[in-house]
Design a protein that fits this description.
InterPro entries: C2_dom (IPR000008), C2_domain_sf (IPR035892), PI-PLC_fam (IPR001192), PLC-like_Pdiesterase_TIM-brl (IPR017946), PLipase_C_PInositol-sp_X_dom (IPR000909), PLipase_C_Pinositol-sp_Y (IPR001711). The protein is α/β, with parallel strands linked by helices. It has 10 helices and 15 strands.
């Protein structure tokens, strides 16, 4: 009975994905399964997936790919990513956590969990059909997820004859970044690395995505239930490339030197460019907010926090003066930011209403990918905490880039 309910839920999930998959972008949708299916359920899932997606489902002609296809060549395709069936059963003997998805998080991926009374961690429970693998289910898997055996160094080994995907928790990624920084970069040049939040983030908070991005991780999964700085940064990064959900990896993470050396995230970085941002003025709050939204008896006291989120050496935050009692504040202040990895930098802007109690009221925010900013003057629309654009609230900014 439990399996029937799970299968019905999966069917509804797949139908919802098909209905909405390509409304925002034609680029491929990757569905990550975390499954523990016996052969009978494998057969049912294979039939369900095949019948639901039909021609838009991508299946590989070979089990071991030597190179992943580009997103451009996979437009309007749905791809399934999971471990080959037998590897889930074998993985129970390893002592590593089976779950690739500690908190049930989703970001740029849709995840499904179909569990049939899974064993305790480290315990292997034989099944009478264990040796059987349903070929129709295996053929669904376009991106093979690798079973994690041994330690970090072994997990990040690059097999020249085939490519795969591994999933690491944020803690495991931090360990890899400290000890095997260049090995992680080398691994992600050919393979896919997915990072997910630790299970203790019960408040649906998020981790720093730049640890993954600066090491080449392609799938940095986020909790989408809450809102805050790191989710705004993620939204800002993916405003690039037309908001299609795919952003090209910087060339310095793809390059290999004459002796096969790769970018080392742990070495000092040279300044590539200096970005100057001048904040002229803001307008539109009196149209988007009630006249008592900030102060019951007087206009708001707005100030702007402006900064850069990015690799550690690029992180910086500056602040304008507070303009008192004014719905149309004029700041006319200029700030300079030295950027070492502008390809990974996000310009962060946040407007606050100053309050003497220390509880400053939110007046809007926006995060913009530095890689797509150009020199000039522009009106920048502001967004609410959920990332929705206000109708009228905006800032007038000028942006300039120059050599260091």
């Amino acid at each position: 009975m439990m399996s029937m309910f799970v299968m019905e839920g999966l069917q509804k999930c797949l139908e919802a994905i098909k209905e909405n998959a390509f409304k925002a972008s034609e680029y491929p949708v990757i569905i990550t399964f975390e499954d523990h299916l016996n052969p009978n359920l494998q057969e049912k899932v294979a039939k369900m997936v095949t019948e639901t997606f039909g021609d838009i489902l991508y299946t590989s002609e070979t089990e071991n790919l030597e190179q992943f296809l580009s997103p451009e060549s996979l437009k309007k395709k749905v791809l399934i990513s999971t471990k080959p069936p037998k590897e889930y059963l074998e993985g129970n003997t390893q002592g590593e956590e089976i779950s690739e998805n500690e908190g049930g998080t989703v970001a740029n991926e849709c995840q499904s969990s179909s569990q049939w009374n899974p064993p305790e961690e480290g315990e292997h429970v034989p099944d009478e059909d264990e040796g059987k693998v349903v070929p129709e289910y295996r053929q669904l898997i376009a991106i093979n997820a690798r079973k994690l055996e041994g330690g970090l160094e072994n997990w990040l080994s690059d097999d020249p004859k085939k490519v795969s995907r591994i999933s690491l928790s944020e803690q495991k990624l931090e360990s890899a970044a400290k000890t095997y920084g260049t090995k992680t970069v080398m691994f992600t040049q050919r393979n896919l690395l997915r990072v997910y939040p630790k299970r203790t983030r019960l408040d649906s908070s998020n981790y720093n995505p730049f640890v993954g991005w600066m090491h080449g991780a392609q799938m940095v999964a986020f909790n989408m239930q809450g809102h805050g700085k790191r989710l705004w940064i993620m939204q800002g990064m993916f405003r690039a490339n037309g908001g299609c959900g795919y952003v090209k990896k910087p060339d310095f993470l793809l390059h290999r030197g004459p002796n096969d050396e790769v970018f080392d995230p742990n070495l000092p970085w040279d300044v590539k460019t200096i970005m100057t941002v001048k904040v002229y003025l803001g307008e539109g709050w009196h149209q988007d907010f009630h006249h008592t939204a900030f102060d019951r008896y007087s206009p708001p006291d707005f100030y702007t926090r402006i900064g850069v989120a990015g690799v550690p050496a690029d992180k910086d935050v500056k602040q304008t003066a507070t303009i008192e009692d004014e719905w149309l504040p004029v700041w006319d202040e200029e700030f300079k930011f030295q950027l070492r990895a502008p390809e990974l930098a996000v310009l962060r802007i946040k407007i606050l209403d100053y309050n003497t109690t220390g509880r400053h009221y939110f007046g809007g925010q926006v995060c913009l990918p530095v890689s797509e900013l150009r020199t000039g003057i522009r009106a920048v629309p502001l967004h609410d905490k959920k990332g929705n654009k206000y109708k009228h609230a905006r800032l007038l900014l000028s942006i300039k880039f120059e050599a260091p």
